[in-house]
Each structure stands twice: as structure tokens, then as C-alpha cells.
Amino acid sequence: MNKIILFSRPGLGLRQDEIREIFAALTESGFQWAVNDAFADEASSAAGVEIPHAKRYAAIDTRLADGAVMLSYGGDGTFLEAVRLTYGHGIPVLGINYGHLGFLANTPREGMQEVFALLHERKYRIQPRTMLRLEGGETIVDGHPYALNEFTIHRTEINMTYVDVFVDGEKLTTYRGDGVLLSTPTGSTAYALSVGGPIVAPMCECFVIAPIAPHNLTMRPMVIPDSSVVTFRVNSRAPYSSISLDNRSFDIPSGSELTVRKAEEPVFLVNLQNISFYDTLRNKMMWGLDSWESRK
Using an 8 Å Cβ cutoff, are 89 and 65 in contact? Predict the structure, then answer.
């Protein structure tokens, strides 16, 4: 690993000194590096940092990907965009957190020099994470039918949506309510968590099916093997429902049938040795911290 590909989104609200610190750290890191055009433009306009053309990129190609790690600077939304850019190129992704909760982008932004030192010393692990692949709607989703966190179906109007769900060809149930989602273990701490799903360790080989605001209160999240092929048949009084793949959403007509399965390739995440999933979970969820202790 000898190259840093920096990805960030403009509009994060970074101060001039923060932008300058990012590029100063990159320059001093000893790595070759490149930055996406949109963030390079913001660095120039907001902080006067001029990035030469040779250190900019608009898309990932084989030359840029060779020997590279993607550094995602932002929150989990930025991280998901970084995954979309790198998927299929074998580039591991490391998230520097400038957002709020940060389960994916879980490395504090104050320690970039330490991050570069750990990368130089190879004190990290590369961890594969399961991706979802949507089938039957490739043209609807801009030709990128993949998700790291979850696939969802959601109503677009006040009426309930009805979704028949089949697992490996066998009918599971009809979900009536706001919708339903299928989550990877990585996504279990995202939308799935907010609808009452279980937290799943990222290396578990499973999916979570979870109803969204179900009309029948006996409906509960369900864990299934990630070898399963899950088919969704959407029915609604409204002419359209909404589907999402991570942070991208699209409308589909009522009556649509879509299938989701484990993608052929995983995505690769950089796991620094001093940060584990359980550390992140405990700190982000504030487990073990009583309210009276926080007032001391």
C-alpha cells in the first residue's frame, strides 16, 4: 500500500484551517495521494489550497487503484459514497469521522498523523464486508445495484404498502405497514437498528429482514442465512413505492418484483489495530455509561 485516495464531499462545513490541516497531513505522510475533483475545488475556493491536476481524479481507474487505500473524510454517508466509488476495484476503505455517530467512519479526525503512521507500519487489518445485489431493477438504480448497509422498500403516500416476501422461493409473509428492509451485518447498526432489528457482528454470515412500522404488531425482525435469495413483490394503493440502496432512493411502480442476494464480491474495510467493532459499539452506544456518571 503506497497511495492514498482521499474522498470527501463538499459542504461539510470544514473551516479553512481544517482543510489546510488535511492537505498538510497528506503532503507530510510520505504516501502518493490524489483527491476527488469536488473536494479539491472546495479546498481551493474555501481555503486557498490549490491541488494540481495530477493529484485530482474524477473516477477510479486501474492505474489509480493500484496499491491504494481510500480515505473517506466525513460521516457514514460519505463512507457509503466512497464504497460505491471503489467497489469492484479491490481498494480498501478507511473512514475518518467528521459526522455524528460514525459506525463506518469510526476513526477520529484528530488523529490523521497517527493513521498514516499505522498505515506505514502496516498495523491494520483488511476486513471483507458482505454487499447486497439487487436483481430486476438495475436500470432503475443507475446501473449500480449494490448496497453495503441495506435494501429497503418504503411507502410514498399515506396508504400502507403491502410487500410479499419470499425466501429461496418460499413465502415468508406479507408485510403491511410503512415497508420492509433487508440488512447486512454491517447495516445492522444503521436503519435496521432504528426499526428494532438486532445488532449483528460484521463477520456473521447472515441477513436481517425487518418490517418498518408494521400494521401487525406481532411482526418481528428475522435473521436468515446470507446464502438466501430474497424476493419482494410490492403492492400498494399508491401508484409508486420507494426503494433504496443505502443512501440512494428510487421510485418503482406498484406490482414490481425485485430480488436481492449476496453480491459476488465483498467490499474491503481497513480496520486499524487500535479500533475494534466492539470498541466502536460500546463507545457509540454509550453502553455501561449510567446517566448519573455522565453528570459527575
Answer: yes
